[in-house]
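Q: What residues go here?
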C-alpha cells in the first residue's frame, strides 16, 4: 500500500531512475495528482528542487520538462573520523561536499567521555565557522577503528580502543553535542557509528567504482582492517565483525604479541604499529604508523624493506580473502600505501590465489586518501536518513510538529 510513498519517489529521483513528473507516473503507476501531492511533501520539507530540463529532452521543440533533483544543500552532516592518535572532523553537505574541516591530535585511549566531548566541541566550532545553526544539521556520522554493532552503535571489544567496549557512543555523542550548542533539538540528533574500513570502502566504491559489485578495501594503519561493499551495500556480517583480518593468526610468528592479547596476529607483524616497533628496533626511532608513512615518503631503506615484507604477509592472507569474495577491485589504503607495500601484496597474492580468481582483479590504491572516512560517514548518514521508510517517518514528524 505504501509502495510509492514520498520517500519512494525520493529514492527514484536520487538514483536517477525517474527525474520528471512524467517519469515518476510511468515508473510508479500513480496518477498525476498523487505524484504531485507526494512531491509537494518533499518540496515543503525543502528536500527537492525543480530545474528546467536540458533542451535535448524536448527535441520536437516543445516545452522542456522540468527536472526534479535532490537538494543536497538543504541540510548538513557532521562527521568525525577517529584514528588512534588523531581525529578529523568536517561539516559536509548532503552531496558529500566539505564545507569546513578541522583535524587535530586526539588520543583514542583517553576513553569515550573525553574523546566524544572534544569532538562535540570541534563540531560546534566548525558550525560557527560555516554560519550554520544546529537546525541545519540532520545527523552525525562517526568512523571508528574498531568493530561496531550496527543496531546499537556500540563498539565491540576493540583492541585499539581501550575503554570503549560496549560504551553507548551515540547517546553520549548526542549529549556532548547538546552541551556545546545552545539550540534545542540537539539532544535528539541521529548519530550513526561505523567501522573505519567499512566506511572507506563505501566511499571509495561509490565515488570511483560505482559499477563494481564486489569491492574490497584493506586499510593498513595502526591496525589492519578490511571493508567489503557488495552490490553497493556495506557487508558487515552478523554483528559487525566482518573484515577484521588483522587478527587472523599466522603460524610462523608465534612470539609476536598483538594488542588483542593473542600471539601471531597479522596486525602484530604487518601493521603500521608493528612496523614502527621494528623500525625503532632497527635504529630508526618511529612512534606510530604515521611515522612509518613519513619514513616511506623519504625512501628510508629499512622502512621500504619492512613495508614490502609486510605487504607479502598481508598478501598471503588476502589470497584467501580474494578467493572467497572474488572482488573486482582490491584497494589498498592507510599509512603503508605505496609501491613497496603494494609490490609485496601483489607478489604473494598472485602466487597464492588461483589465476581464475585474480584474472579481472584490479589492485589499486586509495583515491580519496585521508578524506575517505569522512566521505563514507557522510554518505552513511544521508543514505540512512533519506531511505524511503526513514524519510517518510521524518516527513510525518515534520508535518505533525
Ligand atoms: Zn590480534
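A:
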Amino acid at each position: 500500500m505504501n509502495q510509492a510513498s514520498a520517500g519512494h519517489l525520493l529514492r527514484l529521483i536520487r538514483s536517477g531512475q525517474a527525474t520528471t513528473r512524467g517519469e515518476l507516473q510511468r515508473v510508479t503507476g500513480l496518477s498525476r495528482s498523487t505524484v504531485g501531492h507526494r512531491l509537494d511533501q518533499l518540496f515543503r520539507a525543502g528536500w527537492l528542487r525543480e530545474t528546467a530540463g536540458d533542451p535535448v529532452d524536448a527535441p520536437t521543440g516543445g516545452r522542456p520538462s522540468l527536472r526534479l533533483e535532490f537538494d543536497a544543500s538543504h541540510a548538513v552532516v557532521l562527521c568525525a573520523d577517529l584514528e588512534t592518535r588523531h581525529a578529523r572532523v568536517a561539516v559536509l553537505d548532503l552531496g558529500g561536499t566539505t564545507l569546513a574541516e578541522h583535524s587535530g591530535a586526539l588520543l583514542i585511549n583517553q576513553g569515550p567521555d573525553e574523546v566524544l566531548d572534544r569532538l562535540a566541541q570541534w563540531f560546534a566550532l566548525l558550525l560557527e565557522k560555516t554560519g550554520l545553526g544546529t537546525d541545519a544539521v540532520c545527523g552525525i556520522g562517526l568512523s571508528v577503528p574498531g568493530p561496531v554493532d550496527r543496531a546499537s552503535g556500540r563498539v565491540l571489544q576493540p583492541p585499539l580502543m581501550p575503554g570503549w567496549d560496549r560504551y553507548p557512543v551515540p547517546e553520549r555523542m548526542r549529549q556532548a553535542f547538546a552541551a556545546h550548542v545552545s539550540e534545542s533539538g540537539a539532544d535528539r540528533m541521529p548519530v550513526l557509528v561505523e567501522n573505519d574500513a567499512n566506511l572507506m570502502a563505501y566511499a571509495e566504491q561509490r565515488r570511483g567504482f560505482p559499477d563494481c559489485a564486489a569491492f574490497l578495501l584493506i586499510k593498513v594503519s595502526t591496525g589492519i582492517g578490511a571493508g567489503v561493499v557488495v552490490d553497493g551495500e556495506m557487508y558487515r556480517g552478523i554483528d559487525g565483525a566482518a573484515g577484521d583480518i588483522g587478527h587472523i593468526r599466522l603460524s610462523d610468528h608465534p612470539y609476536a604479541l598483538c594488542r588483542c592479547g593473542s600471539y601471531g596476529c597479522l596486525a602484530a607483524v604487518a601493521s603500521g604499529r608493528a612496523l614502527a616497533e621494528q623500525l625503532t628496533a632497527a635504529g630508526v626511532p618511529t612512534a606510530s604508523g604515521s611515522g612509518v608513512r613519513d619514513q616511506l615518503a623519504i625512501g628510508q631503506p629499512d622502512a621500504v624493506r619492512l613495508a614490502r615484507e609486510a605487504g607479502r604477509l598481508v598478501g598471503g592472507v588476502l589470497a584467501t580473502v580474494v578467493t572467497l569474495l572474488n572482488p573486482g577491485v582490491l584497494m589498498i589504503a592507510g599509512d603503508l600505501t605505496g609501491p613497496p607495500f603494494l609490490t609485496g601484496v601483489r607478489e604473494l597474492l598472485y602466487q597464492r590465489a588461483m589465476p581464475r580468481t585474480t584474472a579481472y582483479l584490479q589492485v589499486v590504491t586509495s583515491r580519496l586518501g585521508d578524506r575517505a572516512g569522512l566521505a563514507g560517514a557522510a554518505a552513511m548518514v544521508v543514505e540512512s536518513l533519506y531511505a524511503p521508510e526513514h524519510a517518510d517517518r521524518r516527513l510525518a514528524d515534520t508535518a505533525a510538529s
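A: Context that may help when evaluating the design: The domain at 6-70 is CATH 1.10.10.10 (Arc Repressor Mutant, subunit A). The chain has a mean pLDDT of 94.
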